[in-house]
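Researcher: Here's the sequence for the chain we discussed earlier.
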Amino acid sequence: MIEMQDVWKTYPDGSHALRGVSVLIERNEFVYLVGPSGAGKSTFMKLIYREEVPTKGQISVNGFNIGKLKPRKIPYIRRNIGVVFQDFRLLPKMTVYENVAFAMEVIEAPKRMIRKRVMEVLELVGLKGKANSLPAQLSGGEQQRVAIARAIVNNPAVIVADEPTGNLDPETSWGIMNLLEEINFRGATIVMATHNKEIVNTLRKRVIAIENGVIVRDEPRGEYGYEI
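Model: Thanks. This is the structure I predict for it:
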C-alpha cells in the first residue's frame, strides 16, 4: 500500500527531515510512527498524502508514484487518503453533517449518495444525533470523531492520523482508538503518529521509530520505547 525507497527530504534551510528512508507498509496494516519531536514524523506523514514531495527517492501509495504525480492527479490520490489532524481542522460555521459532506461535495458525488453515506459514517462514529450541531457545541472527543468521519467518508484505502489523541483526555483517547481499530478492521491501512506510550504499549501493533530523519527501529508488535 505504501512504499518508500531511499527517500530524502531536505528543506530550503538545508535541514534534512528524512535521510534515506526505505519502508514497506502492506495493505490493511496498522502502523504506529514514534520518535522524539522533530524526528521527521510529520514530514513522513505529509509525504504520504502529497503535502510535501521527496527531494530524492521514490514514494508509491496505492500504486501511484507520489513524487511524479501530475497536478491534475493530486485530488484523485487525496480522495483515496483520509487525513486526521490533532487540531481537528473542522469548518466552524458548518454543521457536523456539512463538515463531513464537504469531503464528498468536492469530488462532486451525487447529493443522494452524499446524504446516505454521511449518515452512515456519523452512525459509525456515534454522532448521528449530532448531525445538525456546530463544532463549537461539541466536546473535543466529538470533534475528533467528526474529523475521522470526514476522513473516511470517501472510503479511502489509507488513513493518516497525526497525533489523533494528542489533545484528548485518556478515556476519550481510548474511544478514538477503538474507532480507528474498527476502521482498520473494515479494510483501511492506518499510519498513526503518536507520543501516547500507553496506547502503543497496550494495543500492540507494528512500530516504526524515527530519529533524526532515519528509521532506527521497525518491529511487528513493538513498544513505544521512549520516556515521556
